[in-house]
Oxygenase MpaB family protein
Amino acid sequence: MDVRWWEAVAVDVDDLRQLLDPSEVRRRLGAAVFDRVAGPGGPATRDRIHLSPGPRWFAADRPVRRVHGDAAMFIGGLRALLLQSLHPVAMAAVAGHSDYRADPWGRLQRTSTFLAVTTFGTASDAAGAVDRVRGIHTRISGTTRDGTPYRADDPHLLEWVHLAEVDSFLHCHQRYGTTRLSPAEQDGYVADTARVAAELGVPDPPTTVAGLAARLAAFRPELRGTPEAREAARFLLLTPPLPAPARVPYAAIAAAAVASLPAWTRLPLRLPLLPVTERTAVRLAGHGITGAIRWLLPPARQSA
């Protein structure tokens, strides 16, 4: 019998053992998820953000670091996009100038990198990221379907985008985060995010949860469902470009995001409202998927 044949079988068995090893499965799956969120250069970017020496905008104990470093951001980010779409002018700007349909993963990677740099990066890198975004905003303008002119650097539109993001990130953290923030820490989170918002051009951003709620309520008369908003919701929830194995986990994220939206948003976006299911099965699925993401993506190392 050919000894070399047995040697080949032994090598294949060893490779199979390695592939089925839980730590190897975790590493491979985690790398695949991180590549989707952060892009091919994600590991190097992560190390540069977290390990570069220098002062930061936010100290290690600030609430913004807890919120933006938690897996609940996956649900909060999708909720924010759905909520933001209800402002017809903001949605027209996205539909007219964003590549979210042609390159949704690229847009996600740019957004996640911006959040990571401004939250965890050095002060100089954070300022540079803000300057780049402001430069992009100055070049975007147009008109809505009904002829209303808009500019991406309009402080009013910037405020709406900021409010929807902060409300979504905080709400989903309180529901699905590892540990909830206390009332004082929630105010601290809103105040932390106000620092970045002010740098981006938002006038007098709110610094407390009560202030955030009041400013959101003031936008209600401007919000409505539009064909562009409903198209974006269908794309984000039903037809995102995903490989087959990722569809079930993404469905859990999508369901949790929809369930976390205020009830008044469902009709304009043509989304279902199922209170009992949302409080039980959907919430359980949301906790399950965020727990799985935490297992796959351990916390990044931090600069001393």
The longest strand covers residues 141-143. The CA atoms of residues 88 and 226 lie 7 Å apart. The mean pLDDT is 89. The first helix runs from residue 3 to 20.
